[in-house]
Amino acid sequence: MSTPPVAAAAPNPVEYEPQNMGALLNALTQPNTDTIRQAEKAMKPLLKDPRCIPSLMQILHADPNNAAVVAVALPQVRHVAAVILRKRLTGHYANLDAQYRSLLKAEILQILAHESERSVRNGMVGVAAAIAKLECTAGGTSWPELFQFLAAAAAHQDPMARELAFSLLSEMTETVYTHLKDQFQPIAGLFQTVFSNPQESPAVQKAAVQALGQLLSFLADDQEIEVFCHLIPAILHVASQHAHDDEDLVSVVLDVLYDLAYSPVPAITTHLQTMILFCLEAMKAQDMEMRVRDSAALVVATLAEAKPKTFGKEQALLGQVLEVLFTLIENSEESAAGALFDSNPTWREDLIAEAGGTMDDPDDPYDNPTETSMAQGTLDMLACEIPKKFILEPLLSRCMERMASPDPRRRKAGIACLGVVAEGCAEPLRDHLDEVMPRVLQASRDENPQVRECACFCLGQISEHCQPEILGYSEQILPTIFSLLDDKTVAVQATSCYVLEMFCERLEPEAVRPMLDSLVRKLAAMLEGANKRSVQEMAVAAMAATAVAAEEEFTPYVAGVASLMEKLMVLKEENLFSLRGRALECMGHMAIAVGRDTFRPYFQATMACACEGLTTSSTDLQEFAYAVFANLAKVMKEEFAPVLPELVPHLIDVIGTDEGQLEPAEEQENVSVGVAIFCRTLVFFFLFSLPCP
Predict the structure, then answer these.
(1) Sign of the alpha-carbon torsion through 196, 200, 202, 207
(2) Could you report the per-residue pLDDT of 210-247, keeping only the tens digit for each?
(3) How would you classify residue 595: left for phi > 0, otherwise alpha for psi between -120 and 50, otherwise beta?
(4) For the chain, does the N or the C end have fewer beta carbons within 10 angstroms?
(5) Using one digit for the tens of pLDDT, what is the confidence trace for 323-340?
């Protein structure tokens, strides 16, 4: 192309000649950092001039009659030329005269029509899409020749041409969505033709799915999406056909379904069943990467959140979903009580250390989705979002049927799933405790340790979320916990501490009295004998809950428990700060339980440790300290007053640190704001609860 890009431009100087420009482009493809850096430096001033456009086009055209061009027209060089051309068109296109722009567009279509190198062809697709966007944005001709070319290519007998047409549409998604809504019907027809042809090339179908998927994602919240909604089953069918050999295509489709989940368009709801069944197949696929299967589970959970009534009314479909989730947990070798510990960093650290790894390990297996975590997370969302009148019966029937099974894997799944749904279905579940609790208590005595561990998890969840009705079962639950604290499996022991903590929080002293001595002794022995920090933390939390339940009857145990806690409150290792904080918390709970006179001997030591915690960088430890201050102020009353001159200025400083930051971007800032709000509350508590001197 010899026509100059600008009306009054001078002829191209020697550096713009194809052999020189081509040599620089070739340098960019070399595996040498210095070579690439030098080429970039040399090209930078050239690319600021509009004359770079015809030079790049000469290389891309690769005219066989031009020896200078052929010498540098390697496929990789031409691909780089296309990438650079696409980027530079944005800045230079407005400076090109109308005649040259027409020639440029014609040349691009010619290259697209005849280019055999896939990488170059794909690069030119990007160039064509860039010009189409520029033309539409400027309110120009919108390049009608491109759409004629696209329609012809989509109907061409050569599958490579048809694939090119949909690659173009994919690259032009934003342009089509923004400027070409009047073309939606004919574009939908192009997709329909491809999907309805059983002999169509897989490559063409995949390109069509990619293009339509992107367009659907863009249109998710617009009524215009209805033009394309009838094609949703077709893209799911294509993706299903190629799921075994193209997981990336499945991922693309799952991303589209996620974007469509909240679409207000009624036509999306029409295809709810087809979408969910597609996701279930992906979730069940053992040979598929977990990241893809987890994405499918996320779509199911999101559809339940976005369309809960529609989902719930489809009882047969809901039953299929639940059966898949239960079966995944049933067939997994993992502990189904893992949902309890997923958010517990100490527990995860112990598990990783046990496996010989560290928390910084990029291949941390506990940081990746598993079949069990995927199924439990989805089940939790269903239980929380779908109306209880639709989901409770199919959930409970599956839990109860599995808990009665002779197969320990099914018993594990049944009791674990009951624990998972206890929060979301808490209200109606309270009315079924008479039916459920015998099975739960039986599972806690199961011969299989995984079933017992899941029973502990379930007991803890029910104890936490089915208050106060669950307290009526204290005479059965407390002996069960007592027995589980002696279990041979460490995971069961730890989980039983969680049950004790959840259950005892609202018990009256007379309920815990018969087993108080035994409980305290067992928890103390567990605390001293455990070599896992997570077990120690749970034992301390359970001890605190026991003290709260026993109230003044805990008095005989204060000295011994305080002796244990005082050792933990002075731990200096940063990785032990969470255990140190739990010990502080336990001292605060004991103070509330036994009162000022009994706790007075331990007040100063507890205050000293809490104040020292404020000097650390651990936000968690600081929050534990603030909670202790609040409890001790309530218990010690005027005896707490002497520490106020030192403590209140610190609290006011913390309050002022994040003043005005309503939407902090970083997670740490969110934690800081939480601390500031807590401190503000604490200051008001001091002001209004302590007696005046």
Answers:
(1) negative
(2) 999 999 998 888 888 999 999 999 999 999 988 888 89
(3) left
(4) C
(5) 999 999 999 888 777 555
- The two tokens of residue 511 are 């309920």
Cβ-contact 385, 305 below 8 angstroms: yes
Q: pLDDT confidence of 64, banded at 50, 70, 90? A: low
**Which of 358, 362, 338 has its CA nearest to residue 350?**
358
Map tokens 């979730």 to a residue. 283
How would you label 482-519 residue by residue, b for 16+ Cβ within 10 Å and e otherwise? bebbebeebbbbbbbbbbbbbbbbbbeeebbeebbeeb
Q: Find out whether the peptide bond into 11 is cis, omega within 30 degrees of 0.
A: no
List, as one string, the DSSP characters of 470-514.
GGGGHHHHHHHHHHHTT-SSHHHHHHHHHHHHHHHTT--HHHHGG
- Is residue 221 helix, strand or coil? coil
Residue of 636, 549, 615, 627 whose CA lies nearest to 583: 627
Structure tokens at 581: 């904080």
Distance, in Å, from the CA atom of 461 to the CA atom of 477, rounded to the nearest integer, reads 13
Condensed to tens digits (0 to 9), the pLDDT of residues 11-43 reads: 456 566 767 888 888 899 999 999 999 999 999
CB 378 within 8 A of CB 280: no
In contact, 370 and 339? CB cutoff 8 Å: no
**Boundaries of every domain in the chain:** 1-142
Report how far residue 460's alpha carbon sits from residue 502's, in angstroms, rounded to the nearest whole number: 6
